[in-house]
Q: What sequence folds into this?
């Protein structure tokens, strides 16, 4: 291994406005650390993923894992890029051999957001919408939780980048009157004024690692690892470790309606988890807490509790479908 210092880094990123915002954010932080790391240049390599190319079907219908990360990981493995910036909720629970999450920066708003069409006046909550009103989301997790609380509503899938989904909502595509989106994405893009209400976890459990970024690097890259490690937030990482252990235990992907959200207070982690059927008729949620150093055990233990409560039967039905 050469002792030549690293002066330039290449970031693999998706090309959406939100993905580019996230990657520029990490680039700026890396350059700010340049005086102590030696990094003087950070280049963005824009790559289109399979998830970006397939826009005519819901994610749950596409199948497979890593729809938004696989091509970026290939750029890491073949040396074209030094790191990849992901929305951590898009990263499968198992990483390819040779790759690791080098940093999990401080988490943004983890909650889901209720967004109404600009043409809709009056309603301030989903319960205010009339029977048969249309709510857009391609997330089975969101759909299941909306229908569990508001079975009078109709869910339609909506794909595309964040700005595309907002445009479809305002144009009334498929009769949509509301969307469920992530608060973090809207706030990062400066569109927080579109949030009618943030949906707290007692109403809608967020996706695993929602609001967090993941910086993926090669495992055998001792020069890049210490540079990226400076971006890590231990508090966020401990929460994400617990949530991803939950995901891994349930072998979750976009075809399974599940969510988990951990919070850290001093040396304790508390976490809420959710598993349900896509139609919202069977839903299971529970809460658990453990010391921070037992983050993985917390995620696995909460997953096991939900499986025993009825989640195992739900997952079995989904596997047969």
A:
């Amino acid at each position: 291994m050469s002792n030549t210092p690293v002066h330039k880094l290449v970031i693999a990123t998706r090309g959406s406005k939100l993905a580019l915002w996230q990657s520029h954010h990490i680039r700026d932080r890396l350059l700010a650390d340049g005086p102590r790391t030696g990094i003087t240049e950070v280049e963005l390599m824009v790559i289109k993923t399979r998830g970006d190319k397939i826009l005519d079907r819901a994610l749950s219908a596409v199948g497979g894992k890593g729809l938004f990360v696989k091509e970026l990981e290939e750029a890491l493995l073949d040396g074209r890029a030094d790191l990849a910036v992901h929305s951590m909720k898009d990263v499968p629970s198992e990483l390819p051999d040779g790759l690791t999450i080098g940093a999990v920066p401080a988490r943004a708003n983890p909650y889901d957001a209720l967004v109404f069409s600009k043409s809709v006046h009056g309603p301030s909550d989903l319960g205010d919408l009339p029977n048969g009103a249309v709510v857009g989301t391609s997330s089975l997790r969101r759909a299941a939780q909306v229908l569990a609380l508001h079975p009078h509503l109709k869910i339609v899938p909506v794909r595309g980048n964040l700005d595309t989904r907002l445009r479809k909502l305002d144009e009334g595509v498929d009769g949509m009157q509301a969307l469920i989106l992530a608060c973090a994405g809207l706030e990062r893009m400066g569109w927080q004024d579109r949030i009618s209400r943030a949906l707290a976890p007692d109403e809608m459990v967020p996706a695993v690692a929602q609001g967090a970024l993941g910086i993926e690097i090669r495992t055998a890259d001792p020069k890049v690892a210490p540079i990226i490690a400076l971006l890590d937030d231990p508090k966020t990482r401990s929460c994400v470790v617990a949530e991803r252990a939950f995901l891994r235990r349930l072998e979750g992907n976009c075809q399974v309606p599940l969510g988990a959200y951990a919070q850290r207070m001093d040396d304790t982690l508390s976490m809420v988890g959710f598993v349900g059927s896509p139609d919202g008729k069977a839903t299971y949620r529970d809460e658990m807490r453990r010391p921070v150093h037992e983050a993985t055990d917390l995620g696995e233990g909460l997953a096991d509790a939900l499986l025993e409560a009825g989640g195992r039967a739900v997952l079995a039905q989904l596997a047969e479908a």
User: Anything to note?
Assistant: The chain has three domains: 1-105+212-232, 112-199, 233-321. Residues 295-320 form the longest helix (26 residues).
